[in-house]
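INPUT
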Amino acid sequence: MRSFVTIVVLIVSIITLNAQTSGSYKVDPDHSNILTKVQHMGAGYVWGRFDTFSGDVNFSSEDPSKSSINVQISADSIDTHQEKRDQHLKSPDFFNAKEFAVITFKSSSVKKVDDKTYEVAGDITLHGVTKPITTQVKVTGAGKGMKGEERVGTETTFNLKRSDFGMNFMPGGIGDDVQVVMNLEGIKQAPGAAPAPAPAQ
Amino acid sequence: MTPLILTQIGTGILVPACATGSILLAAQLLKPGANRFVIPLALAIGFLAGYVATFGAPLFPPRESGQWLPWITLAAAACALLPLTPRWRSVALGLLVTGLIIHRHYELEWLSANFPWLKNGAQVFFILALNYTFAASLQKFTDGPPSAWTPFALMIFLCTVSLTIALSGSAALGQAAGILTATLGALWILHLWRPIEPASATTAILATLVPAFLLLAYFYADLPATCGLILLAAPAGACVAAHFSPKKLKAKSPAFARALVISFFGLIAVALAWYFSPALEY
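OUTPUT
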């Protein structure tokens, strides 16, 4: 009897959670992180983060294929806690942030893998080059904020080759494989709310 | 020395120097009188060889402004072979360089309602005037009496351009300028063996690529405007110095005085770039 009640409560929780998480969300940059990791000289790894970004997630738990994710990242906001390195990363040698100010990800399809995991395919545009990527996005949780607003957290990790995007400077010195970790927390918007603006250039 | 550094030296110095040197050497042995056409061709081919060895085959159309450099070089070499006066060549190449390099800077703004036409128009006009002045003064600088000091001075000047740009945030652009420096190094070394004149034949390539490097570094890297202006004023400053008596400057010859002054301007630019740059190592 106790097991039966537990199962019913669990099912109701999942249904309630899914019903609650459906909707339009604006990425809260104050509670989100976009991190990068790349190898230096074949030795250790250097982490960096993007400090300025925005995005929208439209999520439908009933039909995930109707969901979409759009993220815009300011290339000029790269921060590796070393001023000279940051200046170099923003230069034409790497991101060329003055010419290609915004890095974007725009989803083309969303498929449910399990209750908390979705396979998201889309296009990433970086350094003037657009490439398709597919990544698994995990819903880390949902809750209410200090003002009663509904929040949902997601996390995804994927790898890129910087040479695929024309960022070829210092091969061997700086690794070609770049790991990207995106922890995005979204605030549920009222129906009809305007999409997030692109980050200031 | 790490393999990475050795590769950079190979592609960025040896390849362009050997390419330029081979062409000049062959021309000196086979047809010494054709220098007016051979010099710009040798510099252009040397630069292109070094560029391809360092950065790979150039894209067309280029995806970013720096990728116009090889195509600008080809245009400069073509103009050097055409029967154009230096003045018209400077105007044509100045328009080409300015248009190609900085149009991306204004691209997103053209369509906005409050595009500052007057301010940006004045900026473009100022850049074109600077390009023309640099080309004219470089022509005058290289038009002096034949001397080994002239190609040497040009090589040192390009070296300071390369260092200034590298210190301003873009090692790749500095490397590209270094490739051109290597071609001038080959010219100077061969000049020591057998004078390769006229030095003014280098103007078509140098007066096109040096402003291109500086515009790229100013608009897309972090080259301080002061450093760029000092480098563009260097040949004019050297020409002014030529009017002083060599005895007053305790110089061996006017060519030596010009070489000293242009190098001095370059060193000032390097020092300022170092001063404005964040800490070097990371």
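end of record. The longest strand of chain A covers residues 129-144.
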